[in-house]
Amino acid sequence: MTTIQAWAAPAAGAALELVSMELGPLDRDDVEIEVEHCGLCSADDSQWRNASGATRYPFVPGHEAIGRICAVGSSVSEERLGQRVGVGWISGSCMRCWPCLSGSPHLCKDRRRTLSAPTAGFSSRMRCHAAWAVPLPEGLNAASAGPFFCAGLAVFRPLVELQVLPTWRVGVVGLGGLGHLALKFLHAWGCEVVAFTSSERKAEDALSMGAAIAVSGNNLDTWQALQGTLDLLLVTSKAADWPRLFDVLAPRGRVHVLAGSAEPIAVPSSFLIGADRSIGGSIVGSPGTAKQMLEFAARRAIAPEVERLPMSRVNEAMERFASGDVRYRIVLDADFDNPAIASPA
């Protein structure tokens, strides 16, 4: 048995408390990771608040984790011990179904969600299937790499699977955790990027990150000039002005949705049929795509914009995230060995 410490919420929206937890035997295909850093994402916030009604408590958030492998299951090579890896929204899949065998384990119907595990990233140790513990390449700063494993992977996968060309003109809707990484990836890809945000400050940030144009508010002249010009729209925000966004899509353009919402997307079928346009969406990707993303980020010196706090200030971090006071991701540094933290009962 392994005893770990974790920051867990006892009930919906309750302050996280430092607790001790017992982990059972390590599965033969799993690895155990000593957590060093973990990003804070909207999925952590929504499950903490039990927005879906399915959260089980005590709930340990965190699914953008970085750490070192400290134990391996019986079928995992001991050569992986000490390897620095990242774990994202998915921490396991069956490895037997067709999606798994055909290179899309992220679509496995039995995929293991990190936030449904006994412990997640806001803990001293966590576990995942060995295949989902993706090694960090040289050149990436481990302290800021966590957001790559959820936000980064979500926006990078469409670039690969939609075969985005550097000649494309691409719009990024929303400039938060996902949007700012989409902008950075697309700029490094060679695309001309148009950023759409409701914030004047974020519009300025978008230009500094490589956007050719940053649209904020209701500037009619700018919207008119963009009509019918964008090959792809990556929608990373739940609040989207769909009629206006559809107007800027070029023939054969695509709207690709990355932010989940219960609101329907209303679009006339004639808009799609008349100019070969399409609408799609996706979740995070496979470990293979994560490896490609990390190597590309290391090669092009791409890093998430993060604010770092010790994990012992997790409740402050949760409050700031809920209020929107984040630029553009919070990463928590594990400090379970800090003597100032009261040991859990």
Structure description:
It is a single chain. The protein is an alpha/beta fold and 345 residues long. Helices cover 25% and strands 27% of the residues. It is built from 10 helices and 17 strands. It has helices at 42-48, 98-101, 151-161, 177-189, 200-208, 220-226, 242-247, 269-273, 287-299, 314-323, and strands spanning 2-8, 17-23, 30-40, 65-72, 84-87, 90-92, 112-113, 125-129, 134-135, 169-173, 192-197, 213-216, 230-235, 249-257, 278-281, 306-310, 329-333. Strands 3, 4, 5, 8, 9, 16 and 17 form a 7-stranded mixed sheet that branches. It has a 6-stranded parallel sheet with strand order 12-11-10-13-14-15, sandwiched between helices. It has a two-stranded antiparallel ribbon with strand order 1-2. Helix 5 links the parallel strand 11 and strand 12 (213-216). Helix 3 (151-161) runs parallel beside helix 4. It is globular. It starts with a strand and ends in a 12-residue tail after the last strand.
